Amino acid sequence: MTFLEKDLEDIIFQATHEQLSKRGLYVVGKKLRQFKIGNYGIADMIAYQRPFYHLAYNSVMKGCITIYELKKDTIGMSTFNQLIRYANGVKLYLEEKGISGNYDISLVAIGKDVELSSSFCYLPNLFNHDITESTLGINEPTITFNAYKYLYDFDGISFDEISGYRLKDNGF
After folding, report:
1. How far apart are CA 140 and CA 95, in angstroms?
2. pLDDT-based confidence at 55, cuts 50/70/90?
3. Which domain holds residue 59?
4. Cα 109 to the chain's mean position, in Å?
5. Who contacts 130 (Cβ-Cβ below 8 Å, separation ≥6)?
6. What is the pLDDT of residue 137?
7. pLDDT tens digits for 111-151?
8. What's the confidence (pLDDT) of residue 101?
9. Over residues 93-112, mean pLDDT
10. Residue 61 belongs to some domain of the structure
11. Is the Cβ–Cβ distance between 28 and 47 less than 8 Å?
12. Considering its fold, how many domains does the chain have in total?
């Protein structure tokens, strides 16, 4: 049986947040698949959480829009470029609606392998991985980036976050 990108999308979309987190992928909010972002393209999946009131902080917290790009094989710079295009479309849409300060944007690339021939493997080291509880009032969305490798075998699917790539000899 050939494992297709659609199979990966089906698994992630149909699984509960709890099932995914047990397998290493953390999804927050309502999931939508094949989501059209104006003329910027169609994201494989997005998840969104609206702004909410946080009792412990006694404050209204920003919502989050997470854009997922899924690849059955290798993720690399072209995957990241797709995510950037989608993020720009989402950011402009939020600005058009006058609510860009109400949301943070998270980008997630998921694939079977990582392109090591470019600088892609270093990107997760440079971006903040988590959007901590950010309150409303900051006009620009915080943008995060995470990348995951998936493994699909007899035990089902699992996800490993990609980070920590470095040269064998840093030269310093």
Report:
1. 9
2. confident
3. 5-161
4. 6
5. 144
6. 59
7. 999 999 889 989 888 876 666 556 565 667 888 899 999 99
8. 85
9. 93
10. yes
11. yes
12. 1
Nearest to 86 by CA among 38, 134, 133: 38
Determine how β-strand 143-153 pairs with β-strand 103-111.
Answer: parallel
What does the pLDDT average to over 154-171? 88
The amino acid occupying position 96 is E
- Domain assignment present for 171: no
Q: In this structure, what token pair is assigned to residue 41?
A: 């393209």
In a domain, 45, yes or no: yes
169 part of a folded domain: no
Close Cβ partners of 89 (under 8 Å, ≥ 6 residues apart)? 37, 38, 39, 40, 41
Helices within the chain (DSSP H only): 5-14, 17-22, 77-97, 123-126
Query: What tokens appear for 59 in the block?
Result: 């404050």
Residues in the chain: 172
Q: Nearest CA to 65 among 79, 80, 82, 86?
A: 86
The residue written with tokens 């980070």 in the block is: 163
Q: How far apart are CA 115 and CA 21, in angstroms?
A: 25
Q: Which of 127, 135, 12, 114 shows the shortest CA–CA distance to 68?
A: 12
DSSP state string for 92-115: HHHHHHT-GGGEEEEEEEEESEE-
